[in-house]
Amino acid sequence: MDGKKLAGEKAVESVKDGMILGLGTGSTVYWSILKLGELVKKGLDIKGVPTSKSTEKLAKELGIPLVSFSSINQIDLTIDGADEVNPNFELIKGGGGALLREKMVASISKSSIIVIDETKYVPNLGEFPLPVEIVQFGWEVTSKQISTLGCKPELRTKNNSPFVTDNGNYIFDCYFEKIDDAVKLNTRLNMIPGVVENGLFVHLADTIVVGKRDSSVDILYK
Ligand SMILES: O=C[C@H](O)[C@H](O)[C@H](O)COP(=O)(O)O
Asked: Are residues 186 and 106 in the same domain?
């Protein structure tokens, strides 16, 4: 069975009536949102906070009640995907371009479950290029500054034009040889003028749900 589907559906078992729920973005959490839609139809009482326009659209189609991020101070639980996860529960996110809103939502979540298939659980972060969201103004200069941290930033494109995020920004996919110190790199990247946010999530996940090829699911707790 598909590891993404297994993990996505398993995470929903932690959802309880009355919760305000952060709804992540991507093809793994898609399965969580689909399951939530089914449960809402059967009477589950939750309110979702979407992390992207695509998740907002999906949740609306499924009849999941939503609440705007601006109107709340705290989220009970967020379920989201990731591109890489290491044994310290540090993540690379943003493969789908939603990292900024995802990080904002995660930052006010009491608890956060990350759903992945087993290919994404890695000893060291960095094989997946690190997404960094930047303002459009002077992106060439920002690229040079980011490269001094030891990577090759590539401007993400879509249909031969720069990819534009839900927030109107660009994304660099940054190729580091290996990321040894995610905490330090997260800080250094965010200190560069022009950088809005980067896809390193540190101290923002407490449970990892891993869907495996053999149809089993591992649940890792911090
Ligand atoms: O911007 C996208 C998000 O960070 C996703 O959660 C991440 O890229 C994982 O996506 P998927 O589950 O589709 O592999």
From this structure: no
**Is 133 close to ligand 1, i.e. is its CB under 6 Å away?**
no
State the Cα angle at 152 between 148 and 155, rounded to 5°.
Answer: 115
Choose the residue to mutate in 2, 29, 83, 105 for probing ligand 1, maximizing ligand atoms within 8 Å of C-beta: 83
Q: Mean pLDDT across the stretch 136-162?
A: 98
Mean pLDDT computed over 202-207: 97
212 assigned ligand-binding residue: no
> Model ipTM?
0.99
Summarised one tens digit per residue, pLDDT across range 65-101 is 999 999 999 999 999 999 999 999 999 999 999 999 9
In contact, 21 and 105? CB cutoff 8 Å: no
The CATH number for 27's domain is 3.40.50.1360
